[in-house]
From TrEMBL:
It comes from the Bacteria. One of its GO terms (biological process) is translation. It comes from Streptomyces spongiae. Keywords: Ribonucleoprotein, Ribosomal protein. GO terms for molecular function: structural constituent of ribosome. NCBIfam families: PRK00595.1, rpmG_bact. This is Large ribosomal subunit protein bL33.
Length: 54
């Protein structure tokens, strides 16, 4: 069975401007807007907000 588009793969890019990204999946039904998570940025050396990019 092929993966459906209900849980697409998204990129989370650092808001610190370092260019570091995480790759994850999200549920479109429960999270239709752009996702923002607070994760560790090893380039910046601290926790920053990561925002979904399209």
């Amino acid at each position: 069975m092929a993966r459906n588009e209900l849980r697409p793969v998204i990129k989370l890019r650092s808001t610190a401007g370092t260019g570091y990204t995480y790759v994850t999946r999200k549920n479109r039904r429960s999270d239709p807007d752009r996702m923002t998570l607070r994760k560790y940025d090893p380039v910046a050396g601290r926790h920053v907000d990561f925002r979904e990019e399209r």
